[in-house]
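User: Here's a protein and a ligand (S-adenosyl-L-homocysteine). What would the complex look like?
Assistant: Let me lay out the input and then the predicted complex.
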Amino acid sequence: MICHDYINEYIRNTIKPSTGILAELEEFAEKNHVPIIQPEVARLLFVLGTIHKPKRILEVGTAIGYSAILMSGFLDGAGKIDTIERYELMVERAKENIRRAGLTDTISIITGDALEVLRCLDKKYDMIFLDGAKGQYGEFLAECERMLEAGGLLVSDNVLYKGMVAANELVVRRKKTIVKRMRDYLDMLCKSDKFETSIIPIGDGVAVSYKKK
Ligand code: SAH
Ligand code: MG
């Protein structure tokens, strides 16, 4: 939570509770401390996706498959999601959840380290969601730019990282490097002439970038 509590609370209360497998996964994530996207970010992602209507989505950071399953909700029947995860235990859980959601034909998990996987991928996407390895977003950017169609959307989660990215006095020592890297990432993204970017202070901070045509 990086905004005033009363603002967060007000916004949170406007959000309809999830149902079905998404509700189940939210509960599992809460109990097991899996850092899935926060409800406000889920709403933003869903509205962006509904407007943008992507056919191919790439995600970095699958965890238990929550955001991938959420995003499948704005794909039409032909849409596909590739999602990258390096942690075997998460991959197994995500596979099971995706199977239970009946989405095995829609969501493909790619197991491995995101940077290596991104460098090998030779596909085009109309939407990319970055939600893993905060310290590596800067290295991911060139690959995302290469794979994103003109007119595509790049959504980056956790860019304000508990507010630390915006205020030195909040930075705890062992997070200094990650914070510095995230600032460099935002700097690159916001100065890039390839993207138009807006940083939104909901959840842990989200950057929404449009790849210019
Ligand atoms: N997007 C998910 C949450 C992802 S949490 C959701 O909202 O439902 C971040 C995940 O990224 C973790 O599961 C972590 O294992 C994975 N991750 C972190 N660094 C990574 C890397 N370099 N390559 C692949 N996966 C990574
Ligand atoms: Mg996140």
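Summary: The radius of gyration is 16 Å.
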